[in-house]
Design a protein that fits this description.
Elements (H helix, E strand, L loop, with lengths): L1 E7 L2 E6 L9 E10 L2 H9 L1 E2 L2 E2 L4 E2 L3 E9 L11 E4 L2 E3 L19 E3 L16 E5 L3 E3 L6 H4 L2 H13 L7 E5 L3 H12 L4 E6 L2 H9 L4 E4 L10 E6 L4 H10 E9 L13 H5 L3 E4 L6 H10 L8 E6 L3 H9 L5 E5 L7
Parallel strand pairs: 13-14, 13-16, 14-15, 16-17, 17-18, 19-20
Antiparallel strand pairs: 1-2, 1-6, 3-7, 3-11, 3-20, 4-5, 7-8, 8-12, 9-10
Helix pairs in contact: 1-9, 3-4, 3-8, 4-5
Length: about 350
Amino acid sequence: MKAVVVHGPRDLRIDERPRPEPGPGEVLVAMEWGGICGSDVAYWKHGVSGTAALRHPLVLGHEVAGRIAETGPGTSGLTDGQPVTVHPAEPEGNEPLPERIAGRTNLHRRIRYFGSAAFDPHTDGGFSEYRVVRADRIRPLPEGVSTEHGALAEPLAVALHAVRRAGDVRGRTVLVNGAGPIGALVVAALKHRGAAAVIASDLSGTSLRVARAMGADETVDVSSGAPLPEDVELSFDASGAPAALGPVLRATARGGTLVQVGNLPGAAAPAALGDLVTREITWIGSYRFVEEIDDALAAMRDGLDVSPVISHRFGLDRAGEALAVAAGSGSSKVMLRLDRTAAR
């Protein structure tokens, strides 16, 4: 089978690997679609994503969907040909979570994640024609949700988790800074959860157009020097840019809340944080998700349309070109077609 493998910075190859066989409690998924994430781009560009550094070749991809090709012994409720997506997190070990974070499985000390070099050996992702997956990580797609859209359940789950971290958003005016794929999906998640008005800000006109299509009521092109709004009770930073924190904190109302969903650098970086103290802002971190992937699938079943966030589609053999496009400023979500017969 073919697999998209990063061997080092700027060293991406389409490798041939043996087709895997499912063991007890596992299924083999014939992958159809994958969405390129910022972490995939980081591994390809730098050999590092956050604090995780490549030590060995790694199959990329954690936003994936396909169809069951084969079930291993001891599995039930899954059938060959069934369209599915994957919850890509696999907590390791049996260490219980402290009571204060009970149920927040995204905060386990050790979590293996598809397409991650956080541990050695690395955890291969799903940008391949086939991938063995634990049966408990499989999520069947609802009727009417294509495998292409199913591959976006993972980033939509990230957005829904961030919105959940903010509490009840019904009737509120919200600022979303950074309108890349995650920011655009945060916009959609906020509107889905009942936000009254969502303002999206970004440097890219392309990203702002996507945010509008995903439900933003107003957009701010900060590249033109336009200021962010003032006194917004609830803000989200989806840019992950330390330089953006100062303006977003200033835009957040005194006593307001800022949810940090954009992944900040793992090393020291300058940021203007004075307003965090003087305005008594509550700064909340949001990391991946728990089981919001189920909420994401339900939202798509109920009509949340993720198609505007998709800007490009490439075949598996053009993965290098796809990553280059995803790394540029003129794209939103770049999709990889991982087989030759996937239906849109």
